[in-house]
Amino acid sequence: VQVVKSEIPIMWLDTSIINLMTQWKHKLCRIDSTREQRISDLYNAIYEATRKGKLICPLAEQEGEVWVERDKWMETINTLSLGIEALDLLAIHDNQFRIFMSAFVQKQNSVSISYREAFDDDPVEELRETLRGPFFITVNSPLLFGEAYRMKLKNNLHQTADAQRAKNVRANVTFEQQLENEIRGDIEGLSILVGKFLTGQFKDEEDQFNATCGAVNLGSQLMMWKNVCGCPEGLEGLMTFYKSSYYRAMPYTDLSCNLLARMMTDKQQIRSGDPMDIKHVSTLMPFSDIFITDKAMSTFLRKRKLDEQYGTTVCYIGNTQIISKFFSSLQ
User: Which of 8, 94, 243, 261 fits 179 for a cystine, CB–CB 3.0-4.6 Å?
Assistant: First the structure.
């Protein structure tokens, strides 16, 4: 698998880092001096590099879990991104899915995937065009379905996942065993949701909504399979792709399954933000040149050598030498 990176480096920031930048900029709370220095240095370095056309720092759906001071938070990332946005996470996943499915059908020996698959327009050209103009335009999208629904959904997912994690720990499920479970999990999960959709057996409105989304996703994948002339046709053919080495090699599958297996066999409780962090890593880390996340996530990614695999510098805000070295390379 070859990942084609952007000629202008791409930096991804964890939601928590943008939170800290917003708190620092607007003096929303007290921040200890060490953290304040790190945050201010990083913010100013990104601001300078983007204005010189040497760095792309896109908005990439980090705002999905921001409820407090949302307008100020959006102002922070919009200032650094210059209005450049990645595609939504599902669209990035689907672009990877389509490319690897086509490679499977054509029996390609290698698969190349470009950073362009994570953006609607080429962010390199978008950055250059923005810098040629006197101003840039951003849009603060409303929170889809509202704050109350999103919080309820997040809490339900967190409770369900952590209950299963605890069960796995009691049963001594190993990381390798759970990794295989996660690889099979996508198609098994879709099959369960579609079964509910077809039979109309729902526990509540949320269950009905999830089942409907599952049916739509499966329908979309079957259409992709048809468009690449997959054989055999229909669900039987799609299952051959899911069982193939091409599906396992897809960056999204590789990263998400590794991270989910780690989360679901960890003795520590799942943090509420972990599921969304996994989605961000799985969709955007391969296309990023530097990926600044939290300490636990960066440690795991480096331990599994996933940073080396995708040619991405992975660090957390405390890795000041790594961050400084990256910005020095932009000069």
Answer: 261
Half-sphere exposure of 279 (CA within 13 A, CB side): 17
What are phi and psi for residue 32, nearest 5 degrees? Answer: -65, 155
The band of 201, judged by pLDDT with boundaries at 50, 70 and 90, is confident
197 — pLDDT class (breaks 50, 70, 90):
confident
Mean pLDDT, range 234-250, rounded to an integer: 93
- Residue 311 DSSP label: T
3-state SS, residue 169: helix
**DSSP per residue, 192-246:** HHHHHHHHT--SSHHHHHHHHHHHHHHHHHHHHHHHTT-SS-HHHHHHHHHTSHH
Question: If you count DSSP H runs as helices and E runs as strands, how many of each does the chain have, helices first?
Answer: 15, 5
Query: Kind and range of the H or E element at 292?
Result: strand 290-293
83 SS3 class: coil
Q: Specify the residue for token string 């601001």.
A: 47
The answer on pLDDT for 220 being more than 70 is yes
Q: Render 23-54 in DSSP notation, one character per residue.
A: HHHHT-S---HHHHHHHHHHHHHHHHHHHTTS
Instruction: Give the other-Cβ count within 10 Å of 21's Cβ.
Output: 21
Position 264: which residue type?
M
